[in-house]
Recover the amino acids of this structure.
């Protein structure tokens, strides 16, 4: 069985980061090991959330794992929470990754042209440094702008997307995939650039008119799970894009559904079916 290390926070309530990664990747038949970077009462879209930084725990935990000779097929990073944690994630890549390890970096730090609460330009610069280590990096347009210095635009065309990908390829050596890319009215999807092979790929599906927290985490988790199941990079992203859209639609159907996250628990059956079909 493949084993993934997921490095991101635990937001106890709110359906994001580890509370999405652990169930989703596990359900896809992949052992999922958590390294929690911080413990929050809720995600940061709520007011007055508590935040306990867990930086000082990370080194002892990983030292123990080294003694136990624990190995990972993939290391997946999401919301890290502080500059030190980015530095520690970097050390973990150096200490645990081999040539075969998939390093999947979701440089979670903002959306809609702004950084999330608690992050600044320096945090973005450190994320850019971290992304130099990634096999696959998956920033959204906002995150790509903060890492490349390209100004953020709400309205854009394919040329702008390629400009962002060119900016990312100045420091990323693997595959850069922009998420939340809408190339025509009513559509959204991904646009990737495989830097080594100088090859672009993109996938668009219907845009569901709703935005929820944690959908990026669902998307990344499904992609990581699919890659660990042997899907090609393009097929893994396609599966993740379709599944995320389906889950948002399913969430909207339920009039009691929460505002703070999607009902990913309701679509596991469909995820497993789609994975079987794609294999
Ligand atoms: O879904 C990304 C995410 C993860 N963790 C925390 C967050 C967010 C987005 O805001 O606040 C704590």
């Amino acid at each position: 069985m493949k084993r993934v290390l997921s490095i991101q926070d635990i937001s106890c309530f709110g359906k994001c980061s580890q509370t999405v990664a652990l169930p989703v990747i596990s359900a896809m038949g992949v052992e999922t090991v958590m390294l929690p970077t911080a413990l929050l009462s809720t995600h940061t879209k709520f007011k007055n959330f508590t935040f306990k930084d867990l930086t000082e725990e990370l080194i002892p935990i990983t030292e123990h794992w080294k003694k136990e000779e624990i190995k990972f097929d993939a290391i997946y990073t999401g919301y890290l929470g502080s500059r030190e944690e980015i530095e520690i994630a970097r050390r973990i890549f150096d200490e645990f990754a081999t040539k075969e390890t998939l390093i999947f970096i979701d440089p979670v730090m903002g959306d809609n042209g702004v950084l999330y609460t608690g992050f600044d330009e320096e945090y973005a610069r450190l994320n850019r440094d971290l992304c130099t280590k990634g096999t696959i990096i998956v920033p959204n347009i906002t995150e790509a702008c903060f890492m490349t210095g390209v100004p953020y635009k709400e309205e854009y065309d394919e040329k702008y997307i390629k400009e962002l990908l060119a900016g990312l390829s100045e420091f990323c050596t693997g595959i850069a995939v922009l998420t939340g890319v809408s190339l025509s009215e009513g559509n959204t999807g991904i646009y990737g650039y495989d830097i080594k092979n100088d090859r672009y790929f993109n996938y668009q599906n219907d845009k569901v008119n709703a935005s929820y927290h944690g959908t990026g985490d669902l998307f990344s988790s499904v992609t990581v799970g699919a890659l660990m199941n042997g899907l090609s990079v393009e097929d893994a992203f396609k599966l993740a894009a379709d599944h995320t859209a389906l889950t948002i639609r399913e969430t909207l159907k339920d009039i009691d559904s929460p505002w703070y996250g999607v009902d990913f628990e309701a679509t596991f059956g469909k995820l497993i079916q789609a994975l079987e079909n794609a294999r």
